[in-house]
C-alpha cells in the first residue's frame, strides 16, 4: 500500500484489490477503517476477450475445443457485482452530516448497448453491467440513498485497444478520457441522477433510453415487480409504487 500526503494528513491510499474475488472485501474494510466512511465506488476495471468463442482455428479438428477463458466476464461483470454489494454494506454504515448512502458509478461500454463482433464476451459482460445498473437503481435509491449509474465510453485510447486500431479510426471518432471523467463527476455530484446510462462520445454525453418492449402493457407486466416474489428473494418488500401486491 502506498499513500499520498499533504502536510501531515494522508489524503489517499492505494491498495491491491482482487476484483474477480469476493476477498476484495478486505480492501473495503481497510478503507472504511481508515476514513470512517465510503462515499463512492468507481467500478472502472475492464479487459477484453481472452479467448475466441468463434474457435475458427479449430474448424478442422475432431477434438473438443478448449474451455473458454472467461476472465473478461469475471473482471467486467462479476467484479462489478461483488464491488456493488460491498459498497452497499459499507455505505449503509456511513454517519455524520452526510448520513448513510453514497454513489456508485460503473464503467460499461457502447459495446454493451450495440455489440461489436470482435469482442463477443466483452459485449455480453458490458451489457450485463448496463442492465444490472438499471435493475438495482430504484431499490438502492429508495432504501439506502445509494445512487448507481453506468458510463458507456466509445473508443478511448487505452491499453486494451491496439494502437493500429486507434490509427485506423479518424480522430473525431475518439473519445478523450476527459469526457468520461466529466460523466463520472456528473454522476457523483448530481443527487437526482440514478439508474442512468450515459454514452460518452467524443466530447459529448448522452442519456441512453431503456429499450421498449413491443406489446405495451402485456409486455411490461413481465418486468413489473410482483412484491411477494421480491420479498421471497430479498426478504423485504420492494416499496416500489408500481409494484403488484
TrEMBL record:
Checking Pfam families in the record gives:
adh_short (PF00106)
Source organism superkingdom: Eukaryota
UniProt keyword list = NADP, Oxidoreductase
A single GO molecular function term of this UniProt record? oxidoreductase activity
Task: State the InterPro entries in the record.
Answer: NAD(P)-bd_dom_sf, Sc_DH/Rdtase_CS, SDR_fam
Gene Ontology CC: one annotated term = cytoplasm
Family, according to the entry, reads as follows: Belongs to the short-chain dehydrogenases/reductases (SDR) family.
Annotated protein name in UniProt = 15-hydroxyprostaglandin dehydrogenase
Q: Which organism is it from?
A: Lophiotrema nucula
Amino acid at each position: 500500500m502506498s499513500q499520498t500526503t499533504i502536510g501531515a494528513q494522508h489524503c489517499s491510499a492505494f491498495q491491491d484489490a482482487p476484483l474477480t474475488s469476493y476477498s476484495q472485501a478486505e480492501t473495503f474494510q481497510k478503507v472504511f477503517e481508515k476514513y470512517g466512511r465510503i462515499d463512492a465506488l468507481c467500478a472502472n476495471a475492464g479487459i477484453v476477450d481472452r479467448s475466441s468463442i468463434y474457435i475458427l482455428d479449430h474448424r478442422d479438428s475432431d477434438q473438443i475445443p478448449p474451455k473458454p477463458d472467461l476472465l473478461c466476464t469475471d473482471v467486467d461483470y462479476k467484479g462489478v457485482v461483488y464491488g456493488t454489494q460491498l459498497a452497499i454494506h459499507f455505505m449503509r454504515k456511513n454517519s455524520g452530516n452526510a448520513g448513510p448512502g453514497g454513489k456508485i458509478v460503473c464503467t460499461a461500454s457502447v459495446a454493451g448497448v450495440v455489440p461489436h463482433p470482435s469482442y463477443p464476451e466483452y459485449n455480453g459482460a458490458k451489457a450485463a453491467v448496463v442492465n444490472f445498473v438499471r435493475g438495482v437503481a430504484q431499490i438502492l435509491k429508495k432504501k439506502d440513498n445509494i445512487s448507481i449509474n453506468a458510463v458507456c465510453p466509445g473508443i478511448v485510447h487505452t491499453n486494451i485497444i491496439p494502437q493500429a486500431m486507434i490509427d485506423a479510426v479518424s480522430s473525431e471518432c475518439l473519445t478523450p478520457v476527459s469526457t468520461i471523467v466529466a460523466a463520472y463527476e456528473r454522476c457523483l455530484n448530481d443527487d437526482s441522477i440514478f439508474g442512468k446510462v450515459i454514452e460518452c462520445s467524443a466530447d459529448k454525453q448522452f442519456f441512453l433510453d431503456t429499450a421498449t418492449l413491443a406489446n405495451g402493457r402485456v409486455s411490461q407486466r413481465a418486468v413489473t415487480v410482483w412484491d411477494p416474489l421480491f420479498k421471497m428473494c430479498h426478504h423485504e418488500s420492494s416499496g416500489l409504487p408500481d409494484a403488484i401486491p
